[in-house]
Amino acid sequence: MSNKNAVGWLRGVIYDCRDHRAVCDFYRRLLGVEIQDEQEGWLELAPGSSSVIMGFCPVDPSRLERVGNQRVRIDIEVEDLDVAGAEALALGATLVEVVHVRPDEEHRIYADPEGNEFNLVLPIPDNR
User: Fold this and answer.
1) pLDDT, mean of residues 43-70
2) SS3 for 76?
């Protein structure tokens, strides 16, 4: 990271979708990029000329109950979840949920002071 005061860097924009395949296909065609990762409940577009990925997953009804219509959130990649989480909390964030998406992969969902959710994530494993 170039900014020593940064907690992390923007890795991706994540969409919770009723039909994640259709929304992914829309952005794939709009941006002229290909799908770079596809797993059950997850589609990810290649970043193209940017370094930011776009991810698409089926909407979780409990998430809709929690945040209403906010269905876009950002992934902030960090080097250490505990350190970054403590810094986020000190800045006014609230820990919402810890999610285990794959074996040995943990995401932490936080809310900013107005309730907008974001994820703190570790770097993508090399074996993916």
Assistant:
1) 85
2) strand
